[in-house]
Amino acid sequence: MAGNKHLDTLWYTRCSVPTPLSFAAQFGWIDQEFKPDGIVIKSLRESNDPVERASHYDHNLPHSFRQGGSIPPIWARASGADTRVIGLSWTDEFQAIITLPTSGIRSVRDLRGRRFGLPLHETRIDHNRASALRALLVSLQLDGIAADAVERIDLPDHSYPVTGAGEAHEVEFSTPARKRHTYANEVFALVRGDVDAIYVKDVRGLEVVKLLGAHIVADLGFHPDPFVRISNCTPRPLTVNANTIDEHPEVVARFLRRVSEAAAWARRHPEETNTWIARETGWSERLVRQSFGPEAHLHFDIDLSQDKIDGINILKNFLVEHGFLKNDFDTNDWIDSRPLAAIATLPPLRQAA
């Protein structure tokens, strides 16, 4: 094992969304890879320590890998976390601006002069708010409508209490165990008439659409222009501490190879991929298929292609422009291609079934 310093523990964390890291973790491939080295693999989900769990956002743990939504790792990097992006996946999913069927709003143009709900969560980085704002502004831009033509209404947690929600948003994880539904604030506001339109995404968004019989004003998730689809969910970076790459380059390359192998497995197993997504997220297979589309299994490849790097850079610039980040940084300096290139130098790995 390369590196001069002893390594006894690796951490990993992922959002409860489809990623090749989530597959590799479920298959036990990460544990299998490093068991012969005596390296203990720890999942952040198994920790009850609030400081450790906060690493899902601020990347405070040493030798830690993360894959999931883009906005928290961008925020962590802008806040001083010395991390690197070693791979990016891009799995599109349902994203939409919706209204009640009785609103009279049938198209984006009808949003002029109406009220759009923006969640305001008590978190260090409100990725739901950022995603909703970008969806609104991109939709208006596509129709040539000024950004200020729609009134933006803040929807703070304290105005939409949820019984038993407690401190669910202090360190928020997108897991089935989370106490407050992702779109609780928005749905309450929409039904009460506080706002006229909201943004939703993935299976949770589809659930809202079906529950309300909502009208889809802007369908963004599978828009032909990838610029439109950029959000917290697309693309999804795999990040790791910079010093882990420097001190243990072979370990990082081996970890990345296992994640890449999981993406290759998905390509070969379309039906099983849908089942494993459902298992990872706690959502039904039927809704998973509707949310991520029939070809989701083809879109877990993890690489550093320019279109994915451009996507993460566009999102980072948006967060800076709209005040979600205190500091800017150079996206190219955040990308580290060495682990991806090093995979080719590793001993052959027996191909997974």
Name of the CATH superfamily of the largest domain: Periplasmic binding protein-like II
Query: What kind of sheet is the major sheet?
Result: 5 strands, mixed
Give me the count of strands: 10
What is the average per-residue confidence, as pLDDT, rounded to a whole number? 92
Describe the strand arrangement of the main beta sheet, using strand numbers.
Answer: 2-1-3-10-4
User: What structural class results from the helix and strand content?
Assistant: alpha/beta
Shape: globular
CATH architecture of the largest domain: 3-Layer(aba) Sandwich
Note the total helix count.
16
Strand content: 15-25%
CATH topology group of the largest domain: D-Maltodextrin-Binding Protein, domain 2
Low-confidence stretches: 165-178
Instruction: For the record, give the distance between the C-alpha atoms at the N and C termini, rounded to a whole number.
Output: 26 Å
Tell me the count of domains: 2
CATH class of the largest domain: Alpha Beta
- SSE topology string: EHHEHHEHEEEHEHEHEHEHHHHHHH
Helix content: 25-40%
If you compute it from the alpha carbons, what radius of gyration comes out, rounded to the nearest whole angstrom?
Answer: 20 Å
